[in-house]
Specification:
single chain; 336 residues; alpha/beta; Rossmann fold; seven-stranded parallel β-sheet; three-stranded mixed β-sheet; 11 helices; 40% helix; binds nicotinamide-adenine-dinucleotide; binds uridine-5'-diphosphate
């Protein structure tokens, strides 16, 4: 049985991916320092699947500690989720972001070389398309970033490209995620942001359960059908399955795939769908644009559809239903 290392596997996307890799028959090792997660997510994944995960509290920037994992297990592939991801915080504390995100990637590449592990799947982001409005965005779109978080993603993409160029056996898959939302249908695992959520869907969920009074809609004068920002929301379970497909179809060299649905929805589309499927009211006010936001961003996912035989199956209704189901069951996330 193949063994995969999921760094950051206790986090939001990583925990959903751990579940899907187990369902696919892989052995799963999770390395996480719990800087933004709880070991409870993995306990729940074990319960849901009836399978064990080897969970290790490791900071992936710590090479000696991470090497121990490579000594303990023979990895077939690394799926690298670990990293910091808050755009605003990355502007305030850029060095923290460069240190954690770049160091962890370098440590993994060095250990892959040392231990002859040849496959890596990396969590990149649509943020590498910068301010491009050339939608639907294709993987060939020129890249460029507007904040340090985005730059770490683009720099790691470059590091991995150069790594692959240095050794013909290496397979690098760069997955550019659009906007992951939702939760596992069981409501047992989901997104659990610390503090005030930066992202739309978790904020809406917290309004729905009464943790926040109302949503601020950032901008209503964009050149979009209703004036609010348009994004490509993708159900986290579809996204997780995209990783299994990427791993199964990995080939030497560098492959880049957009993981999105190909459909853009506005902030108000999401709010209205959430209200309709969940029978709740989401009070909101229209406020100023958030600096750095683009009007419209959605993927052309054709390449992933064709090369990976993968496509997103779940729609905005399922995303809203499952996000709320998790939030209702665990209003304080893993702290309940
Ligand atoms: P998350 O914060 O829930 O998960 C990241 C995990 O990495 C956390 O469990 C955290 O504790 C862990 N971690 C951070 N630094 C670590 C380190 N040095 N060593 C070990 N563990 C460490 O975030 P997520 O939403 O699941 O995102 C996963 C990946 O996907 C990240 O790389 C993120 O940048 C990327 N991504 C996320 C989104 C999104 O909107 N959620 C979009 C595009 C890309
Ligand atoms: N947004 C909003 N209110 C919020 C959070 C986000 O109106 O409290 C909007 C934001 O301006 C963007 C969309 O929702 O148009 C998605 O934002 P998010 O931060 O979730 O993702 P990203 O900006 O990274 O695409």
């Amino acid at each position: 049985m193949a063994t995969v290392l999921l760094t950051g596997g206790a986090g939001y996307i990583g925990s959903h991916a751990a579940l899907e890799f187990l369902n696919d028959g892989s052995e799963v090792v999770v390395a996480d320092n719990f800087s933004n997660s709880s070991p409870k997510s993995i306990e729940r994944v074990e319960k849901l699947t009836g399978k064990k995960v080897a969970l290790r509290e490791v900071d992936v920037c710590d090479k000696a500690a991470t090497r121990k994992l490579f000594e303990e297990f023979k990895f077939d592939a690394i799926v690298h989720f670990a990293g910091y991801k808050a755009v605003g915080e990355s502007v305030a504390q850029p060095l923290k972001y460069y240190r954690n995100n770049i160091d962890s990637a370098l440590v993994l590449c060095e250990l892959m070389e040392e231990f002859g592990v040849n496959k890596i799947v990396f969590s990149s982001s649509a943020t590498v398309y910068g301010t491009s409005q050339n939608v639907p965005l294709k993987e060939t779109e020129p890249t460029g970033c507007t904040n340090p978080y985005g730059w770490t993603k683009l720099m790691i993409e470059q590091i991995l490209r150069d790594f692959a160029r240095s050794n013909e056996n290496i397979s690098v898959t760069l997955l550019r995620y659009f906007n992951p939302v939702g939760a596992h249908a069981s409501g047992e695992i989901g997104e659990d942001p610390l503090g005030i959520p930066n992202n739309l869907a978790p904020f809406v969920c917290q309004v729905a359960v009464g943790r926040r009074e109302k949503l601020s809609v950032f901008g209503s004068d964009y050149p979009t059908p209703d004036g609010t920002g348009v994004r490509d929301y993708i159900h986290v379970v579809d996204l997780a399955l995209g990783h299994v497909a990427a791993y199964r179809n990995a080939k030497p060299g560098v492959s880049v795939y957009n993981l999105g649905t190909g459909t853009g929805y506005s902030v108000l589309d999401l709010v209205k769908t959430f209200e309709k499927v969940n029978g709740v009211k989401i009070p909101y006010e229209l406020t100023a644009r958030r600096p750095g936001d683009v009007a419209t961003c959605y993927a052309d996912p054709t390449l992933a559809n064709e090369a990976l035989g993968w496509s997103a199956k779940l729609g905005l209704e399922e995303m809203c239903r499952d996000a709320y189901n998790w939030q209702k069951k665990y209003p304080n996330g893993y702290r309940d």
